[in-house]
Write a structure and sequence with these properties.
With 284 residues, the protein is mainly α. The chain contains 13 helices and no strands. Helix 3 crosses helix 10, helix 5 packs antiparallel against helix 7 and helix 7 runs antiparallel to helix 13. It starts with a helix and ends with a helix.
Length: 284
Amino acid sequence: MKADLSDITFTAIAPVIWGSTYIVATEFLQGFSPLTVSLLRALPAGLLLLLIVRRLPTGIWWFRAFALGALNISIFLSMLFVAAYRLPGGVAATVAAVQPLVVVFIAALLLKAPIRPLSVVAAMVGIVGVALLVLTPQAALDEVGIAAGLAGAVSMAFGNVLARRWKSPESLLTSTAWQLTAGGLLLVPVALVFEPAVPLPTVPNLLALAWLSLIGAALTYVLWFRGIGRVDSAAVSALLFLSPLTAVLLGWVFLGQSLNAFQLVGILSVVGSIWLSQGVSARS
């Protein structure tokens, strides 16, 4: 599928905004548990969009909305925050960076898309770039955190490919509302059983949650699912490398974190990986 520059640009906005998740969660949401943050990020956004579109699924789309909501929202977000809380940000980001590589093979399985060697190379270059960007010699490993990061990456990879395969009969806004709402509802009983009570939120907490939900979920998922429908699977998944890149740059700008030579090479590798993926998509 050939996409123009505007499609790629609009889609890229989503992972750039998602890159702010780590700094927002660590600086403004201390004391909140992973599943609670995932729930408060997804459900309000979904209900807001559902209030706007005022349409519920029908027929097979009840099952598909909850299946996609589980893969793209419930499992992905909860595993993302579990990994973020149990691993240093660098390790979590590197584990999650395997998703573009996983998408190449899942798309071949479910969409009969050809496995292009250059797409695999681009994904590997991106993973190396992310590792150079965020890994440090002091990075500690935690088996549960690594397993959660891998599970989240595979879950969203399957969800993205299935969202492309199952073309919704409704508008993009409607299908996004269904997924966010379904994903948020699936998290409610899990959070109630396994998570501690939500702490009394402060004004910074509320602003952070509003950013994660309204901008980091409602807006970005609309842009992301739009891109899934318009951009080649491997090319759109490669844009996810922008998330750890954005996280590193935000830490440099706002937290005074330094950038060394390895990180600069990592930035160039990430940019090169995205450029190569888009080039492969355009040539096909």
